[in-house]
Amino acid sequence: AHLNSSTVPDGLSTVAVAAGPAANDQKLRSGPLVGTRVVDMSSVVSGPMATSVLADQGAEVIKVEAPKSPDMTRGLGPAPTKGLGAMYATLNRGKRSVTLDVQKPKGLELLKRLVSKSDVVVQNYRPGVAEKLGVDYASLCLVNPDIIVLSISGFGPTGPYADLRVYDQVVQAMSGVTTIMSDGAGQPAMFHNLIVDKVTSLNAAQAVTAALLAKSQGKGGQNIQLSMMDAAMHFLFPDAYWNKVWPDIAPIATEWREIAQRSTYDASDGRVSISATDARQMWGLLEVTGLTEHRSDSFGKMRAAALEKIRAVLKTMTKQDIFDICQRHGVPCGMFQTLDEALSDPQVRHCGTVEEHVHPEGGRYRASRPPAQFARTPSCVQGPAPLMGVDNAEVLKELGLSTAEVEGLRKEGVI
């Protein structure tokens, strides 16, 4: 059933499905990865966000947690009920949930039975932990030679930092993110978001799909190692590291912080970002502000002569007026928007970027739709995030266990 448009708050798509396809009903799933099974042994952000992308694209993702050690994100953010913190609900939508204590022989044996019927395993243990538990690639490919195992770590499986405990902020500091975020006094600063976790997760999702393609071409399964440090530096290299690309060429004195500041202008009711990067766009900005007497063929001369006058004129205008008139003159411009303003943005509403669904236990929730829109194999929010262990009985019965055996495992603390 669809939500009635009159009940959908501003900023939400009115095409949202009330409950969404059930995550455990494979016949209702859609997307290019339908028919692929992923065992998600990861936690927090880098792994779960990667597997949520795979789930959105149709893969059956089975999230595996230890019975007494749930994913910490279950407790992060507002929650309608225990275990459905906002971060967890977003990162684990469309998945099934199984609890297995792989430190117990029966739990490890069940995990391996699950892997034997799967295509991919994703984990983000510190190097050495998977080997200790017996869930590393070498162990798992013994039960499924074609398995693809993606292992995410902070700094890689070897080296002086391999064993360190790592979170997003640690890699921000080590990779140079904090340098490019430095303030006017040169004081390094954190990016106020889990940017390294997220860019790692997108690399992880792409790596899995590439490995699945290789497997479909007869090249079998494989082990994939992905470090957050590598992902962060790869992400930063085109611009932040551009003075390091050609070691025999003198660097260009360019501060990305200054570029960002130069593109930021005050309005009467907020701020806008205007990226006039060539003479034609600068002409348009002069027309926007009524300063056409400064028009010339030189972008640099125009900017130097008129910049402060442009700032003064824009301060008398609302950000919406600046945005509207810049669009008419072909000048790239965006308004600084709050989260609520972004939710209500007419383009966001038009595209259905944010949907509203109903969780069977938590009630209404918002979800961003999958950004990649496939014409022939459409992806979607396949279902809500699962409560912990909610699919234990069903998944274990699919592995051939009886109801009595499942109950026995529960009493033993295996599940």
From TrEMBL:
Belongs to the CoA-transferase III family. InterPro entries: CoA-transferase_III_domain, CoA-Trfase_fam_III, CoA-Trfase_III_dom3_sf, CoA-Trfase_III_dom_1_sf. This is Formyl-CoA transferase. The keyword Transferase applies. GO terms for molecular function: CoA-transferase activity. It comes from Polarella glacialis (Dinoflagellate). Residues 361-380 are annotated as: Disordered. Pfam families: CoA_transf_3. Keywords: Transferase.
